[in-house]
Structure formats: structure tokens, C-alpha cells
Design brief:
By secondary structure, the chain is α+β, with helices and mostly antiparallel strands. It has nine helices and 17 strands.
């Protein structure tokens, strides 16, 4: 398979989360390609959630290995959906996150099919990962018995010389302040919900620092973090706001709990302000001594010709849905930069190398199973 060309084709689809027409067109493109190779392909569709494409070499729900990923992207200018190759890099929306690595997964399926590897191999690509992965959750509810010994997660990091050993728990919290309307010229007649919220947020910041204001990366990045994702208070300029809402994005390390977060928030609320935990998950934590991961690491080092380090990542991953089911999750991707930014790119050589690592790893799994 010409992986880079497939990646470019996927990038031309404007699969911004929620763009159902383009998402379905991209999935139809993938289904046609994989079906011609002999793969079993289903597009899971359920009202109210984004579709998921499910590809497998055999009609099974018990996998030796699964690749997990997504084809949706964050919004971008029109020009970013016209991929450009320049100086050994592929530029455009989805180059790094993560259509290049979706192409790697499709290449792995072709490899498994053409070589008739005696393993059960599958690919799950969602289309709303950038906004909560409700489609993946619905998909896993339907296919409740699905399991995998190994999950290959290419949607992490951005450095092929590193394997991610830990990912944090994303917890989203909505804080709501209730005030009383009044004319802007007579603030004493009202209760400003924005002021109540500011006081609350200041209390929260005493526990969860605003690292972005310090202008430098902290020495220890494996800490709980918070950013205020959305702030909405007031309707017009001359009326005291009677309501203010803030959506908070917490990322908790594995030693922190949602219950601990609640206790901290309880101490931070001022009168007239409350909160609710909108969503929470679990962190993905893999042992750096896991024999399967070490075997993968050894193989990758041989192919790359250099050492690979373990690293921790603050971002979330859908692989958590399989980690809690006992799967060994190998979080490894190619190299690039500019994720979610206007200069997003992936290093072409890293895409090809990742594909080689993945296919050779699957060949090793097949050899071990045959014995």
C-alpha cells in the first residue's frame, strides 16, 4: 500500500467532528478499499452518535491485536484540507492527528490479509474522538464481548522515539454561578454572577496552577492540570449578569481520583456557585516491564536503529476502554508537530517506519501463535 498517498486521500475529506456527510464519504472510501482486499467491514451507525468503522480479517470479536484510532479532526481553514508534501514532511489537517496513522493501520490490515497471518486482527476508527468519543462508547456497548490481547494505539505522542506508558484521566466539570440582574450603572442592586465565578476560579487556581501564565514547562509534568475551556457570562454590556458558566478540563494522574477532585472543588465554591462532573474516565497506565511492550520496543529499536524511551502523556486516549478490559495497550506513533494548529505536519519517514514496526510486530505475534 502507498501509505502516504492513502493518508493524503483521507486528509482531503473534511472530517471535522460533526460533519456527517464528509465522515461517511471517508468511511465509504475506507470500506471500499478494505473490502476489495477481502476484509470484513462494518460501519456502525446509531442515531445521536457519530459512526464508527470496524474492519477485521475474520468475523470475530476476540482479537490477538486491534488498532484503535479516529478519522475526525478539529476545525481548520480550507487550505489545510489540501495536503502538501514539503521537505520530507506532510502538512495539513490530520497529518499528525491522525490520518497518517489511520493509513498505517489500513496498511497493516493489507499485510495481514495478503500474508494470511494466523491471527485475529482488527481496526476500529471512530469519528468523534475530538469531542468525547460517544460513538466509540456506543459501539462498545453493541459489541459488548469484544476483547483484544494487544491494542496498538497510534493516536498519542508525536515522537517515534518514545512509547507512552501513561495517559491521564480527562475529567470535564461544569461550574455554574447564579446571580441577580440589575442595570450596569447600579451594581449594588444586583448580584454579579461573573464576579462570583471569578472568586471561585481564583480559589481553584490556588490548588491547580495556571502553568500557561508562567511561560515555561514545569520540571515535573506528571501532575494534575486544569484549563478553563469555555467561559460564558452575561448577555449585554449594561446588565449585571445573572448567570455564568465555565467548562473546566481537568487532567488527573493515576494517583488522583475524581472523589479527590470533588473534595477540592467543594472547598473552592463561593455562595451562589455550584458544579457538576460532566464526564470522567480512567487513566491508561501500562507497566514499563510488560513483556509484550518490551518485545515491541526491542523490535522498534532495531528498525529505527536507536533507543526508544518511555514517556508519560497528558492527553487522553480511547484505548482506556480496552485497558480496563485487561488489554496490553502499546501507545506509539510517528513524529511531527503542530497538532490542532495551523502548521500541523508529520515526518514522512516516521510514518513509513511506524508501518514497518507494526507489520513486523504482527508477523511476530502470528509466529508465536503458530508455535
Amino acid at each position: 500500500m502507498k501509505i502516504i498517498e492513502v493518508a493524503q486521500e483521507l486528509m482531503r475529506f473534511r472530517t471535522e467532528t460533526g460533519n456527517s456527510e464528509q465522515i461517511m464519504q471517508a468511511m465509504a472510501y475506507i470500506k471500499n478499499m478494505m473490502s476489495l482486499l477481502g476484509a470484513k467491514v462494518d460501519i456502525f451507525v446509531k442515531k445521536g452518535v457519530a459512526p464508527v468503522i470496524f474492519i477485521r480479517n475474520r468475523q470475530t470479536l476476540d482479537f490477538d491485536a486491534l488498532v484503535l484510532g479516529h478519522i475526525d479532526v478539529v476545525p481548520a481553514a480550507d487550505k489545510m484540507f489540501k495536503p502538501v508534501v514539503r521537505n520530507g514532511r506532510l502538512y495539513g489537517r490530520g497529518a499528525l492527528d491522525m490520518k497518517s496513522f489511520a493509513a498505517v493501520a489500513l496498511n497493516s490490515m493489507q499485510f495481514v490479509l495478503e500474508n494470511k497471518l494466523p491471527i485475529n486482527f482488527g481496526i476500529i476508527l471512530s469519528s468523534d474522538e475530538e469531542k468525547g468519543s460517544k460513538g466509540t462508547k456506543a459501539f462498545l456497548e453493541k459489541y459488548g464481548k469484544i476483547k483484544a490481547d494487544v491494542v496498538l494505539d497510534n493516536d498519542v505522542g508525536g515522537d517515534i522515539t518514545k512509547i507512552i506508558a501513561k495517559c491521564k484521566n480527562p475529567v470535564f466539570v461544569k461550574i455554574t454561578a447564579a446571580g441577580k440582574e440589575a442595570h450596569g450603572s447600579r451594581p449594588w442592586d444586583g448580584v454579579d454572577a461573573n464576579e462570583l465565578m471569578l472568586a471561585t476560579l481564583a480559589n481553584i487556581r490556588k490548588i491547580y496552577p495556571a502553568y500557561s501564565l508562567e511561560g515555561k514547562k514545569p520540571r515535573n509534568i506528571w501532575v494534575d492540570t486544569l484549563h478553563f475551556a469555555k467561559i460564558n457570562g452575561g448577555e449585554v454590556s449594561n446588565i449585571i449578569a445573572d448567570r455564568c458558566e465555565v467548562l473546566c478540563d481537568f487532567r488527573l494522574v493515576e494517583t488522583s481520583s475524581v472523589e479527590g477532585l470533588r473534595k477540592n472543588l467543594d472547598k473552592c465554591m463561593v455562595k451562589g456557585v455550584g458544579y457538576e462532573v460532566v464526564s470522567a474516565s480512567t487513566p491508561v497506565v501500562m507497566s514499563e516491564k510488560n513483556p509484550i511492550i518490551l518485545e515491541y520496543k526491542k523490535l522498534a529499536e532495531k528498525i529505527l536503529g536507536q533507543k526508544i524511551k518511555f514517556e508519560y502523556e497528558g492527553g487522553a486516549t480511547d484505548a482506556r476502554e480496552f485497558a480496563v478490559r485487561g488489554s496490553t495497550v502499546i501507545m506509539h506513533s510517528g513524529s511531527g508537530d503542530g497538532m490542532h494548529a495551523a502548521d500541523e505536519y508529520v515526518e514522512l519517514e516516521s510514518v513509513e517506519k511506524l508501518a514497518e514496526v507494526q507489520t513486523q510486530f504482527l508477523a511476530k505475534l502470528a509466529l508465536a501463535k503458530a508455535k
